[in-house]
Automatic annotation (TrEMBL):
<dbReference type="InterPro" id="IPR011335">
    <property type="entry name" value="Restrct_endonuc-II-like"/>
</dbReference>
<dbReference type="Pfam" id="PF14338">
    <property type="entry name" value="Mrr_N"/>
</dbReference>
<dbReference type="InterPro" id="IPR007560">
    <property type="entry name" value="Restrct_endonuc_IV_Mrr"/>
</dbReference>
<dbReference type="InterPro" id="IPR025745">
    <property type="entry name" value="Mrr-like_N_dom"/>
</dbReference>
<dbReference type="Pfam" id="PF04471">
    <property type="entry name" value="Mrr_cat"/>
</dbReference>
<dbReference type="InterPro" id="IPR011856">
    <property type="entry name" value="tRNA_endonuc-like_dom_sf"/>
</dbReference>
<dbReference type="InterPro" id="IPR052906">
    <property type="entry name" value="Type_IV_Methyl-Rstrct_Enzyme"/>
</dbReference>
<protein>
    <submittedName>
        <fullName>Mrr restriction system protein</fullName>
    </submittedName>
</protein>
<feature type="domain" description="Restriction endonuclease type IV Mrr">
    <location>
        <begin position="158"/>
        <end position="277"/>
    </location>
</feature>
<feature type="compositionally biased region" description="Basic and acidic residues">
    <location>
        <begin position="112"/>
        <end position="123"/>
    </location>
</feature>
<feature type="region of interest" description="Disordered">
    <location>
        <begin position="112"/>
        <end position="135"/>
    </location>
</feature>
<feature type="domain" description="Restriction system protein Mrr-like N-terminal">
    <location>
        <begin position="6"/>
        <end position="91"/>
    </location>
</feature>
<dbReference type="GO" id="GO:0015666">
    <property type="term" value="F:restriction endodeoxyribonuclease activity"/>
</dbReference>
<dbReference type="GO" id="GO:0009307">
    <property type="term" value="P:DNA restriction-modification system"/>
</dbReference>
<feature type="compositionally biased region" description="Polar residues">
    <location>
        <begin position="126"/>
        <end position="135"/>
    </location>
</feature>
<dbReference type="GO" id="GO:0003677">
    <property type="term" value="F:DNA binding"/>
</dbReference>
Length: 303
């Protein structure tokens, strides 16, 4: 069974606290997990941020939504208790409590729209979404990053081959390779008919070096022959390590080949290149920062 969305967990939460006594949220979370028969692996699955599990996040947002609608209250730290509205919801919604149902209460409408007014228009997109605000935020961020990656690749392919070779070295530097910028600059001037575009130190002391190959393609797929040619060039230099970077893609045969040979060759295609540039802040800058805050439990600890 997949991890239930936050709307699906609302009614099971009400069932878990239906006796009217305050319950610990941890106990309610456990009851929800049992209700949906979640495995240990499903219980442990985390949001992309890694800071919270999916099921705990969804139970937390279900509590927030129901509290804003007056279905539950929080009589104390970490506690939840059902209200008369909550019991009414159990009667009105025998299968599933939804955001649409919560909009029967003006307090929730004011919270959900953030624009209190007498005339409330329906918002089907928000209403039918099964994702929590945290998940929606992370999905929006992922979409923005995908769009940025595409834009980066378009910009790179429009640049000159010389700039691309410089970009490759800059990326290696940003990732912690290459020693000093001066040494890396000397590496970019290394040329060879053997299919090597540059060399760069693996560590600041230069105890080992990495040979680079950079191909700025738009649609051409890099196949096994080109990767084999790079491996042969490494043999000529008695080198053991290489990085082949392209703005396009590698064929399945090319990726299979590097797994068969003894020397270590890392293949970085266009999508991975863009992601690495974003991760190491190369050629990108922060457009806007949104601080998502949460309660500081230590501050409220009176012990």
């Amino acid at each position: 069974m997949p991890i239930p969305d936050f709307q699906s967990v609302m009614r099971p939460m009400l069932v878990a606290i239906n006796d009217g006594s305050p319950k610990l949220m941890a106990d309610v979370l456990e009851e929800v997990c049992r209700h949906f028969q979640l495995s240990e692996e499903e219980r442990a699955q985390r949001l992309p941020s890694g800071k919270q599990t999916y099921i705990k996040n969804r139970v937390g947002w279900a509590r927030t939504y129901m509290k804003k609608a007056g279905l539950v209250t929080s009589p104390g730290k970490g506690l939840i208790q059902i209200t008369d509205r909550g019991r009414q919801a159990m009667q009105d919604c025998p299968e599933r409590v939804t955001v649409r149902y919560l909009k029967n209460y003006q307090e929730f409408v004011d919270f959900h729209t953030h624009t209190p007014s007498e005339d409330k228009t329906e918002q089907p997109e928000a209403e039918t979404s099964n994702d929590t605000p945290d998940e929606q935020l992370q999905q929006a961020h992922a979409s923005l990053m995908d769009s940025l990656a595409d834009e980066l690749l378009d910009t790179i392919t429009a640049a000159t081959p010389a700039f691309f070779e410089k970009l490759v070295v800059d990326l290696m530097l940003a990732m912690g390779y290459g020693g000093s910028r001066e040494d890396a600059g000397q590496a970019t001037r290394y040329t060879s008919d053997g299919g090597i575009d540059g060399i760069i130190k693996e560590d600041p002391l230069g105890l080992d070096v990495i040979y680079l190959q950079a191909k700025r393609y738009t649609e051409k797929v890099v196949g096994r022959p080109e990767v084999q040619g790079f491996a042969g060039a490494l043999d000529m230099q008695r080198a053991r390590k290489g990085v082949f970077i392209t703005t396009s893609k590698f064929s399945g045969d090319a990726r299979e080949y590097v797994g068969l040979i003894e020397k270590k060759i890392v293949l970085i295609d266009g999508q991975e290149l863009a992601k690495l540039m974003i991760q190491y802040n190369l050629g990108v800058g922060i457009k806007e920062t949104y601080a998502v805050k949460q309660i500081d439990s230590d501050y409220f600890n009176e012990e």
